[in-house]
Amino acid sequence: MIIRHGLVALPGERDFIRADIRIHGERIADVASATSGGLEPLEDEELVDASGLLVLPGAIDPHVHFDEPGFTQREDFLHGSSEAAKGGVTTVIDMPCTSLPPVTRREALENKLAVISNQAVVDYALFGGVSGHTVEESLALWMEELAPYVVGFKCYFISGMESFTRVTHDDFARIVAAGERLGRPILLHAEDFDYVTAATRRVKARRGEAAPEWADYADSRPEEAEFAACAAAMALARGREKTLHVVHVGTAQAAELVAAGGATCETCAHYLAFSRDDFSRLGAALKTAPVVKAPGEVERLWALLASGGISFVASDHAPAPRAEKETGDPWTAYGGIPGTGTMLPYLLSEGLLARRIGLPRFIEAVCGLAARRYGLSARKGAIEPGKDADLVLVDPTATTRIEGELLLSKGKITPFEGMRLTGRILVTYVRGAPVYRAQRGADEAAVGEIVAAPGSGKFITWGYR
Ligand SMILES: [Zn+2]
Cα torsion for 352, 287, 308, 58, to the nearest 10°? Predict the structure, then answer.
């Protein structure tokens, strides 16, 4: 098959290049620019006309909570991966903490794979986890047993989950050492436990008997809590900073500290799009943990994404049903939003096409650097011969309007509700096969369909080649 005449996002190029891409089986066999004459079709070769369309490498969403098995009233792999495909995400990496039992040991991973392997429509890797209540078992054996099957280990400095608890600073230093020995990054949810616990108490006392407001929740998890946790993490990982990756950073100050010390971090589309001001207005639809930050952070995070101080973007996709989101109480409303389907459309429109970031950084931020960080770059993260044919065709002249009720995720409540974005995803290919297809010229809110069978997505892990 040849995808012809598209404007292709090739690695290292400053602008889109008109080129043809030959796909043989699951992989990219050849790429030839129009200026070099393009590709000559073989007899009977299928041709896809991509004239006027952008051809992007499939996005990697390196932080999703698909909740299966265990919390499937919130999300499952079929719905989550369908939403991903709709949004141009061709590989997701799922978190260990929001399925039951949590993926802290090999038996749990095998159990999870047995449940999800016939569900996904995009490729997927898994993170292992280290929970505070079983940290000694993890350090003695479980991390080592899991390492061949996972692309990193996640832990928390603060956790709201009974089934997956926070680690202490002492635990964390030993976990980073184990990660370095095993050759896997250690991912940290960086909010300081003491700070948030004390701030929560203070904010609740201040409010007294009056009804809580959304700003109270934001005040309980301020910018300083993230910075303090990142500073501690850098100190505890001293000499092993390359093993540390801080997830969902929302403040520029924390990102700068982490990057300057030689560790890596990600941010999320919602921290690039929204601030505390929006949270007061949107409430539950924008409640996440960590919470969105002060208005000034948005532009500073964009600048860090453009410069590479923030490596890549993830969705932290974590939806919940209406009953769990709309409790009417800022403290109990579920903290998490669907995001895997809106991440790439948002970054394309408000990042690349709005010229906040250039094409090389855009590609690195949506797939290239996550592929390298998690040992997947032999086959993922760029449009190059030999790599998997994970491709997204986008009509840059059309618009997309986001409607929560039309999300393919189980979660329908999104802070991006009603947002109009430049560009419209028409086809998502995973390993050469179309997975999602939308109609050209359809209504801006219309959603296409999933055309791949559940289970077509493949489990991949570190060193996949
Ligand atoms: Zn998360």
Answer: -50
Note the pLDDT of residue 132.
97
Give the chain's length: 465
Phi first, then psi: what are they for 285, rounded to 5°? -65, -20
Same domain, 369 and 393: no
**457 belongs to a structural domain:** no
Confidence at 441, pLDDT banded by 50, 70, 90: confident
| 216 and 78, same domain (yes or no) | yes
Residues 292, 280: Cα–Cα separation, whole Å: 11
Tell which of 352, 373, 394 closes a domain: 373
Question: 179 and 136, same structural domain?
Answer: yes
Å from CA of 121 to ligand 1 middle = 21
CA-CA distance, 425 to 423, in Å (whole number)?
A: 7
Q: Could you tell me how far CA 414 lies from the centroid of its own chain?
A: 16
- Mark the residues whose beta carbon lies below 5 A from ion ligand 1: 316
Task: Give domain status of residue 125, yes or no.
Answer: yes
460 is a domain residue = no
Average confidence score pLDDT of the chain: 97
Q: Are residues 52 and 112 in the same domain?
A: no
Answer yes or no: are the C-beta atoms of 30 and 39 closer than 8 Å: yes
Segments forming the whole domain that contains residue 35? 2-56+385-409+419-450
Confidence band (pLDDT; 50, 70, 90) for 250? very high
- If you measure from the C-alpha of residue 247 to the centroid of ligand 1, how many angstroms do you get, rounded to a whole number? 8
Pairing of strands 244-246, 264-268: parallel
Same domain, 208 and 119: yes
294-303 burial code (b ≥16 CB/10 A, e <16)? eeebbebbbe
Q: Is the pTM of this model over 0.90?
A: yes
Centre of ligand 1 to C-alpha 79, Å, is 17
CATH number of domain containing 168:
3.20.20.140
- 167 pLDDT higher than 90: yes
The verdict on whether omega for the bond into residue 222 sits within 30 degrees of 0, i.e. cis, is no
Handedness of CA 415, 447, 78, 153 (dihedral sign): negative
Residue 25 CA to ligand 1 centre (angstroms): 34
Instruction: Answer with the one of 348, 373, 398 that is the final residue of a domain.
Output: 373
Per-residue tokens: 348:
């394309």
Separation of alpha carbons 18 and 5, rounded Å:
6
Count up the domains in the chain and report the number: 2
